Structure to design on (513 residues):
């Protein structure tokens, strides 16, 4: 196998951005028909390297070969012509188009007169989705569907174009445990059919399960390539972070105090279907405890959080924060009353991408006396405050506080949001998938921060799709299924298998609010 030409060779690639060398003389070789993982911390240069291969960036140095021949990839069209496709970490879909329109965008089949032949395209898409187990509704509009289905749309986009080299950038960051298993199966099927897969991930379990080989980057430099059959998680994490990482969350038993958040009979409408997304839900979160909402994506968790945080109005029900009725309070009043929110979608609800890091960090506080005087922003104070959080939370960026948020890696964007929300000293911290897309070192840190908030007497509402996180971090687990809470569990007395049955709707218990 080693004698055959590699499907792709990236040789001595160097890519620089202002203040940072994102790829520093990196070499990566992908064999035909293999799943090759690319592992590294947030900001290690993984997405940059893949963006170079996909033609989104031009490297300052280095060459790319396909099947042993040197190629020039000036833009994604060149990449497509060479059979290279990419599913980005933050999907590149047109929100107001249907699934089918997104898949065929740019390669629309037309007849001689130039009319669109959609039926033919639909047939091909349905055949591909059947063949690879990629369930999608071709007529659904992107903004109405779950993240898992958006991702399947992205994969179908590559298969529709007959791509041979498939790049998956953090593909499981947004998926439920069940969807992750499905995706790994799909990737193995694709590799078995001779497609070559580059798989960027932080998740060591998935790399161990699906990949044949793994290349590790650290701070933009190449660390090494290992055979998965001959390595283990501890070695991979050591190569990635440069030190031993703890995989368990250390925490003392919880000592819950008074009720901080009280949700009674809450119903929230759905944008996707006629039924309500959240149906008559009641629960409480007390000071000094972490309550986790677990469930398969798309069972009303997002709408539940939108209702509590003020992003969506309630159809019925009441919300109290520290005994104060906030059912109809505007978002700023919820914030000033002590609610912090780490949102599920960091681009849509977490950051203003074209603002600097420092402006994003004071988004909810710029009007406080520390940051404003006589209607003018106190820039020096804002910069000093941002710098303190950047140092404390190890937010890596090319130009510190003045870095534009859009240019940072996904994981570092996430760290910036978490720093901002925790530092506001909330009474209630709502954390929705707080470790999504973070590496093991960062996850270890964020979990310790969430537990520290609990130990400081804060109420924490955690929404997570990661069952390991649900079991390790929470003090109480509420399972949501089809908009209702169908079970309440003590993580010390339940199993992942039992939670799975409730999450899939196979079992339920009567839960009192």
């Amino acid at each position: 196998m080693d004698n055959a030409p590699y499907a792709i060779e990236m040789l001595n690639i160097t890519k620089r951005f202002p203040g940072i060398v994102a790829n520093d003389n990196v070499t990566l070789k992908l064999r035909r028909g293999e799943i090759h993982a690319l592992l590294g911390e947030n900001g290690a240069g993984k997405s940059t390297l893949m963006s170079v291969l996909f033609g989104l960036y031009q490297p300052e140095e280095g060459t790319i070969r396909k099947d042993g021949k040197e190629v020039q990839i000036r833009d994604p069209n060149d990449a497509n012509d060479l059979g290279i496709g990419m599913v980005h970490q933050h999907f590149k879909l047109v929100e107001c188009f249907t699934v089918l329109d997104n898949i065929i965008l740019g390669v629309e089949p037309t007849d001689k007169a130039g009319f669109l032949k959609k039926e033919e395209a639909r047939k091909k898409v349905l055949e591909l989705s059947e063949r690879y187990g990629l369930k999608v509704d071709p007529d659904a509009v992107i903004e109405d569907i779950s993240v898992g289905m958006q991702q399947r749309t992205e994969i179908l986009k590559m298969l529709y174009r007959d791509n041979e080299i498939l790049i998956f950038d953090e593909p499981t960051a947004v998926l439920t445990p069940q969807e992750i298993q499905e995706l790994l199966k799909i990737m193995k099927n694709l590799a078995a059919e001779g497609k070559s897969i580059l798989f960027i991930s932080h998740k060591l379990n998935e790399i161990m399960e699906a990949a044949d080989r793994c290349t590790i980057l650290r701070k933009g430099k190449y660390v090494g390539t290992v055979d998965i059959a001959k390595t283990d998680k501890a070695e991979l994490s050591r190569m990635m972070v440069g030190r031993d990482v703890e995989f368990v969350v250390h925490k003392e038993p919880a000592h819950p105090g008074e009720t901080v958040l009280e949700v009674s009979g809450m119903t929230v409408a759905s944008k996707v279907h006629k039924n309500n997304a959240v149906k008559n839900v009641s629960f409480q979160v007390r000071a000094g405890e972490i309550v986790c909402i677990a469930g398969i994506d798309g069972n009303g968790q997002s709408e539940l959080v939108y209702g509590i945080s003020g992003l969506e109005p309630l159809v019925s029900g009441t919300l109290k924060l520290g005994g104060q009725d906030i059912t109809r309070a505007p978002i700023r009043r919820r914030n000033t009353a002590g609610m912090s929110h780490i949102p599920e979608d960091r681009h849509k609800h977490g950051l203003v991408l074209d603002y600097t890091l420092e402006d994003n960090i004071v988004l909810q506080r710029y009007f406080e006396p520390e940051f404003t005087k006589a209607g003018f922003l106190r820039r020096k104070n804002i910069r000093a405050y941002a710098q303190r959080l950047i140092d404390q939370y190890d937010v890596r960026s090319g130009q510190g506080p003045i870095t534009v948020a859009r240019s940072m890696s996904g994981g570092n964007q996430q760290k910036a949001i978490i720093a901002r929300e925790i530092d506001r000293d909330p009474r209630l911290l709502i954390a929705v998938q707080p470790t999504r897309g973070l590496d093991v070192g960062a996850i270890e840190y964020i979990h310790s921060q969430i537990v520290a908030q609990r130990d400081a007497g804060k109420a924490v509402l955690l929404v997570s799709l990661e069952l390991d996180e649900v079991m390790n971090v929470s003090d109480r687990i509420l399972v949501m299924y089809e908009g209702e809470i169908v079970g309440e569990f003590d993580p010390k007395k339940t199993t992942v298998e039992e939670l799975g049955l409730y999450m899939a709707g196979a079992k339920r218990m009567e839960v009192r609010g």
